[in-house]
Amino acid sequence: MTPAINITAASQAIALDRFPRFNLCHMPTPIEPMPRLSEALGGPKIFVKRDDCTGLATGGNKTRKLEFLVGEALAQEADMLVTQGAVQSNHVRQTAAAACRVGLQCHAVLERRVPNVEAAYEETGNVFLDKLFGATLEFRPAGLDMNAEAEAVSAQFRVAGRRPYFIPGGGSNPTGALGYVACAQEIAEQCAQEEHDFQWLVMGTGSTGTQAGLVAGFKALDWPLPVMGVSVRQPRERQVGAVYRLAMMTAEKLGVGGATESDIIVDDGYVGEGYGIPAESTLEAIALVARTEGLLLDPVYSAKGMAGLIGLIRQGFFKPSDNVLFLHTGGATALFAYESDILNTVG
Which distant-in-sequence residues (6+ apart) come within 8 Å of 33 by Cβ? Predict the structure, then answer.
């Protein structure tokens, strides 16, 4: 059983109000049971933390990060946000919307990371919304150091007299990870108020900021809820190392004790052929969750995370008595860029 914590004392220890922040997010996002999915899988009781309901531009996990990133940008008197991501980046869509909320321009560098896509892939889904929010876009081939590419673009804007604030891919730096330190605190508060008792939290892990923030946050709260990250791109060893480094930097920013590398748990068995390429297990997860719970998962992040949860249940990883919390990171907008893949599989 997850031990109770003193929420007031824990909140004072983290003291997130000392960091610049701009309110973008609907909080707290609800924790909901998934009884029909739990029954269909015959495993533990599954619950979902609805971070697809954060409110900004259809919601998603990046909104929590952007509260701190945009707050810092405004404190530095930036006049534009510059970021990067894959073509169908949920992060870029939410960054473009956040820029609109605070009256800044947004410029994004998009990587053609997913091979063999139809022409519409670069026009629909998140890309359509990027343009609707007025973001300016430029593209790069796959395989480059995209943060370096976007930083170089930021430098060009500075030479031209602009004041860009650079946001790394996924908003994943110690400032952005504060959003999921705040989420860790929110989950602990909901468990205390709603009498939830979770044995695991499962989520898709990519650019690392969400998992690193949760691990750093739970560590700061001295609340031992293990976080299982299901990798959407990198092999386990690389993902563990990347999450661990950011968790340590986030803890240092907070001024609290850091996690150990053994606190970083990653399963890389559901990546499939690569980032943004749905595996058979990805497509099954999309259909199963849609048809048992009426809930939309995205083919890049949340469905691979859910595929991992489904696979772990089938492997007997969890006890039948466990309560497992799935973090829904949003991204259903990208479904439209994968329509033929999904419908050809699920009918």
Answer: 45, 46, 47
Burial of 56-89, coded b for 16+ CB within 10 Å and e otherwise, reads: bbbbbbbbbbbbbbbbbbbeeebebbbbbbbbbb
List, in sequence order, the alpha helices (H) in 195-301: 209-221, 236-254, 280-293
What is the structure's pLDDT at 5?
A: 61
What would the CATH number be for the domain defined by 7-60+173-346?
Answer: 3.40.50.1100
Omega before 28 within 30 of 0, i.e. cis: yes
> What pLDDT, in 10s, does the model give residues 138-163?
999 999 999 999 999 999 999 999 99
Asked if 310 and 288 touch (Cβ cutoff 8 Å), the reply is yes
Residues labelled catalytic? 89
Give the tens place of pLDDT for each residue, 250-278.
Answer: 999 999 998 899 999 999 999 999 999 99
Q: Where are the domains of the chain?
A: 7-60+173-346, 62-171
What DSSP state is assigned to residue 336? G
CB-based contact 210:327 (threshold 8 Å): yes
Residue 30 CB neighbours (<10 A): 13
Query: CATH top-level class for 62-171?
Result: alpha beta
